[in-house]
Design brief:
Layout: E1 3-4, E2 10-11, H1 15-28, H2 34-60, H3 72-93, H4 97-110
Antiparallel strand pairs: 1-2
Helix pairs in contact: 1-3, 2-3
Length: 117
């Protein structure tokens, strides 16, 4: 799913329609329904976060048996997978994904960064 920009090149899809599309595609092939399916989708986040850790370890060569096995671009891609997986999980909880996320983001932005009081 991509959009055509004015220069004739293909632009990447915007975030929220892409999340809705991924959610719909995953729903169409879901093996587990109900609470179990929801929990498995949320648990997928743990797997993706583990892949970020693996990529960081591989980028820094911290596993002496393997050495350097990843790049910082790999870490970036894995972080993107975490974000996408989290947004799809949120979409599984509510069709108001964008509104819920943006309200929460605004609350986070308003938090003080340092100790208060």
């Amino acid at each position: 799913m991509t959009d055509q920009d004015t220069s004739g090149t293909t632009a990447p899809p915007s975030l929220w329609p892409a999340i809705d599309d991924l959610y719909s595609r995953l729903e169409a092939t879901r093996a587990h329904a109900g609470t179990e399916g929801l929990l498995l989708r949320v648990l997928k986040l743990s797997e993706e976060v583990g892949e970020v850790a693996e990529a960081v370890i591989g980028t820094t060569g911290q596993n002496p048996r393997k050495g350097v096995t990843h790049t910082w671009e790999d870490v970036q891609a894995e972080l993107c997978d975490v974000v996408i997986t989290a947004l799809v999980a949120l979409r599984t909880l509510t069709p108001e994904t964008r509104e819920v996320f943006e309200r929460h983001l605004q609350r986070v932005r308003e938090r003080p960064l340092g100790p208060t009081g």
